[in-house]
Specification:
Layout: E1 2-7, H1 18-26, E2 35-40, H2 41-52, H3 59-67, H4 74-83, H5 91-100, H6 108-111, H7 115-128, E3 133-137, H8 143-156, E4 162-165, H9 172-180, E5 186-188, H10 193-205, E6 215-218, E7 224-226, H11 244-252, E8 263-265, E9 268-269, H12 272-276, E10 292-293, H13 296-310, E11 314-317, H14 325-329, H15 331-335, E12 342-346, H16 353-361, E13 364-368, H17 376-382, H18 388-400, E14 404-405, E15 409-411, H19 418-425, E16 440-442, E17 445-446, H20 450-453, E18 462-464, H21 476-482, E19 485-488, H22 495-511, E20 516-521, E21 526-531, E22 538-542, H23 545-553, E23 558-559, H24 560-571, H25 573-585, E24 589-592, E25 595-598
Parallel strand pairs: 1-2, 1-3, 3-4, 4-5, 8-11, 11-12, 12-13, 13-14, 15-16
Antiparallel strand pairs: 5-6, 6-7, 9-10, 17-19, 18-19, 20-21, 21-22, 23-25, 24-25
Length: 614
């Protein structure tokens, strides 16, 4: 058989499709050999936009739709016109939706007129390959483009089998895809490695489709069938992805002129923290929460081979959380490698300074620690298992080790109060030297999250997010099973305080590049170099022994009561209280939930800070 695996927009331009790469490698496990061809239609779309607009629509414009527009289905709306073959498909309604939420559509309006022709070009290309099976992978904003191509493929060649799988087919969403889009012959729900091999073998040999795990299909009489889900595959059975086809396509693309390629790899699935305490707002693991990781040696071999093969040094890990075993078994080995590989990794937020140092020494340059909030009560509502002062410690120590921290400040949790944010807001000016959140975001109600699965946690009323109504020609009750994002009653922070939080975080983002707060040791105590924007700036000593002891002790968070008790043993209650008050007034400590943590970095930030000498 000749199998074509397709990555549609809005997959990122800078990376190969991990699902396509893995499934191509899985083809070797089929009972008979098959030819597998990848088609990176996302690159073809970006090239078409660039060429037809004479460079006015850039890869950055594509990235905006793919990365920012995903939360409002902007990319899905672009191709909905091609799916339903209506150039004006719900244009006024969707633009009104975006305007009501003050969302920038980017260049979606300029892109949309090219969508229909692009879909026809893609169909022509795929049929020109004379395939026996065409497969699509769909996650986040890849639905409408994939569906539009699938629909026209079946119109022009009805006998051609079409299969789709991916995150958008998890759980009820997979059955909804099969029900509402009948030109999809097969939908794979759940992990695809074993299902892909079983499906190809069944189609090739006339086997029993009922034995393909996780397959949603139709019997000869048209009646729907849904096979039992696949068991979760051990990571030792997940093959090294084959990215050769992507690299050839990327190198030949116009996007390669300005886009830096990245290597996407996977070492683990599931979430070891989520197995114990599922974060209440998170739906990312779908139906596969159980944590599984490749042995460190296996992943090291994957990483080494892929970097050498593709000559790409920027590595992005898609794991939802890094295995704790890797601190012992992987990072020390990477530290001793003589290479310039840089890695982006998602980690837990309660990392110690020595663990952050180990990450940096191993070549990790970007971390996403799931900070989410600086309120301990809100973090408890999330089931995060960390205190706000631990999040501050990670931000502070990350600067010491040159780690870029990606995080967002979330709000809108059932049970949060204005007080949770007021205590943070008055201290935000003291934090401007630390890396700010990318923004403030009201939480989404995500399918598979505890908030979605358990209405008693606070979100009793829910309906598919409004943008779906402007993308699909489906009734609300039909959208319910197709949607990943939902809307419920607004909870928690609202009104003036919500606006104040947004403005304060925006000011933090604007002030961060020109701010620093550095602590160094002198013969008599400590020297503070305070260059925080909006804060009294200058260099001054801290020589009071109790204040020095306090700042040094607060490199790790501790309760205010235990700190006062320790200081009182040396200088009495009054002097101890005075020392802590002095540090608070100077903005040298962060106080929240009865705990304190020091704010000065131990060295000048390794990230660029405008106006500071590095």
């Amino acid at each position: 058989m000749k199998i074509v695996l397709t990555a549609m927009p809005w997959h990122g331009l800078q990376t190969a499709s991990l699902p396509v790469g893995i499934l191509k490698a899985c083809a070797d496990r089929c009972r008979r050999p098959h030819e597998v061809v990848e088609h990176y239609a996302n690159l073809a779309w970006a090239d078409l936009l660039d060429e037809e607009s004479d460079g006015a629509i850039t890869p950055d414009d594509y990235a905006y739709i793919a990365n920012v527009g995903v939360w409002h289905s902007i990319g899905e709306w672009v191709f909905a016109s091609a799916l339903y073959e209506d150039p004006s498909w719900r244009t006024d309604e969707f633009l009104a939706y975006l305007a009501d939420r003050r969302i920038d559509p980017g260049k979606a309006l300029v892109m949309r007129p090219y969508a229909d022709r692009f879909i026809d070009m893609t169909v022509d290309h795929l049929l020109g390959l004379d395939p026996d099976l065409v497969g699509f992978t769909t996650t986040f904003s890849q639905n409408t483009a994939s569906l539009a191509v699938a629909r026209r493929l079946k119109r022009r060649r009805p006998s051609l089998p079409v299969v789709i799988g991916g995150g958008n087919c998890e759980g009820p969403m997979g059955a909804a895809m099969s029900e509402h889009f009948p030109y999809l012959d097969y939908v794979v729900s759940g992990e695809g490695e074993n299902a892909f091999v079983a499906l190809v073998d069944a189609l090739d040999e006339g086997g029993d489709l009922a034995k393909v795990p996780g397959l949603i299909w139709r019997a000869a009489d048209g009646s729907p069938r849904r096979n039992p889900p696949a068991s979760m595959i051990p990571m030792t059975r997940v093959p090294r992805p084959d990215y050769d086809g992507w690299q050839s396509a990327f190198t030949a693309s116009r996007a390669a002129r300005t886009v830096n390629p990245e290597l996407t790899l996977e070492a683990a699935r599931g979430c070891w923290w989520g197995e114990k305490h599922h974060c209440t707002f998170c739906g990312l693991n779908g139906t596969a929460m159980a944590f599984r990781a490749k042995p460190a040696g296996d992943f090291l071999a994957d990483l080494t081979d892929m970097v050498a093969r593709h000559r790409i040094l920027d590595v992005v890990m898609v794991d939802n959380i890094m295995s704790n075993d890797y601190f012992r078994e992987l990072l020390p080995v990477l530290r001793d490698r003589d290479w310039d590989v840089t890695i982006r990794y998602e980690v837990k937020a309660n990392l110690r300074a020595d663990q952050l140092a180990a990450l940096a020494d191993a070549g990790v340059r970007h971390i996403q620690p799931g900070i989410e909030s600086l309120s301990s009560h809100v973090l408890t509502l999330m089931e995060k298992g960390v205190h706000a002062t631990q999040n501050i410690q990670v931000l502070r120590d990350a600067d010491d080790f040159g780690l870029t921290v990606d995080w967002n400040m979330l709000y809108g949790f059932p049970g949060e109060s204005d007080e949770d944010y007021q205590v943070v807001l008055w201290q935000l000016p003291a934090l401007v030297h630390l890396q700010p959140p990318a923004g403030t975001t009201r939480i989404l109600l995500e399918r598979f999250s505890p908030y979605f699965e358990r209405p008693e946690l606070g979100f009793v009323a829910r309906q598919p997010a409004r943008q779906y109504h402007h993308v699909y020609a489906l009734a609300p009750e039909q959208l319910y099973d197709l949607a990943y994002q939902f809307e419920g009653d607004r909870k928690g922070l609202t009104g003036d305080l919500e606006k104040e939080l947004r403005l304060a975080v925006r000011a933090w983002a604007e002030s961060g590049p020109t701010s620093s707060l550095v602590q160094s040791t002198t013969e008599h105590g400590l020297l503070i170099e305070d260059h925080r924007h909006g804060w009294p700036q200058g260099t001054y000593p801290v020589n009071d022994p109790l204040a020095v002891t306090a700042l040094q002790a607060l490199r790790n968070p501790r309760s205010e009561a235990s700190l006062i008790a320790r200081l009182a043993e040396r200088g009495g209650d009054t002097a101890a209280r005075h020392a802590v008050d002095y540090l608070t007034e100077r903005g040298l400590v962060f106080a929240e939930g009865g705990r304190l943590v020091a704010l000065p970095t131990a060295a000048r930030p390794l990230r660029p800070v405008a106006g500071a000498e590095l």
